[in-house]
TrEMBL record, chain A:
Protein name as annotated: Monovalent cation/proton antiporter, MnhG/PhaG subunit
Positions of transmembrane segments: 6-25, 37-56, 68-90
Keywords, comma-separated and alphabetical: Membrane, Transmembrane, Transmembrane helix
Recorded GO MF terms: sodium:proton antiporter activity
One Pfam short name: PhaG_MnhG_YufB
Amino acid sequence: MADMLVAALLLVGAFFGLVGSWGLVRLPQTMQRLHTPTKATTLGVGGVLLASIVYFGGVRGEWSIHELLVTLFLFLTAPVSALMLARAWLHRERERVRATLPRPGASGVDWGVYQPIPEEAEHGAAPKR
Amino acid sequence: MSVRARLRRWLPHPVLSLALILAWVALQNEFAAAHWLMGAIVGVVIPRLLRPFWPDPPPVRSWRAALAYAAVVLWDIAKANVQVAGWVLLRRPETLRSSWLVVPLELRVPEAITLLAGTITMTPGTVSCDLAADGSALLVHCLHTKDAAATVAEIKARYEARLMRMFGEDES
């Protein structure tokens, strides 16, 4: 019984992992491709982790909490890396993309990526000569 | 120096300390006293070293709202994963209507905005891409939406409103 549950969870996890990778291959735009690895993989990894908890806890009788930590670290790191990729792309493609973006509001502010970098001297980082 | 000030000096982030201790013990996967002791050292030293870089952590006003928020987000992640899988598998990519959304922010606490941005990225269909230079809006890329305004309204009602309650910003 527990074996079947483990197998089912593994299959669900593998399915979503596959969908994530498939989306990466199939979607035409860079920003669209950013969606599937951050998303479908959540359930993909989640399914495998649940299977691991059930297997080690239910079948082998060795409860383990490493799976929860993996989930925690994944949830902490996935949005950060996605944001880095998105911002790097916004920056690199700014000539083409900047005009197509909606503005943040009625006032003159722009998105953070397009802010001019403050002078280094302001932070005291530049060596004085 | 009062006890309170001393506590604030040595335990600037009590919740972070607790989380670090639990994470350390969980990493060892054993509940022996030695691991708790080492965890306690980690939990005190790291927040102490972090203090100059993170001077004013906002207090969580409502832990009930925080728990409710976590539950809503976990459920949405599961639900929306299925939805995105459906789009990727069943739709021709050309028919996906991707668009940029601007989510105007009422939240002001930077930590809360970080949480909101992370949540938007983890819930499928949307990735937060940038923050306005003055922190007044989030730039979000949406994989597929028929009604951009409705998606923005949902993000604000489902997540931002709960975060405002969690950090007590709805009172001020």
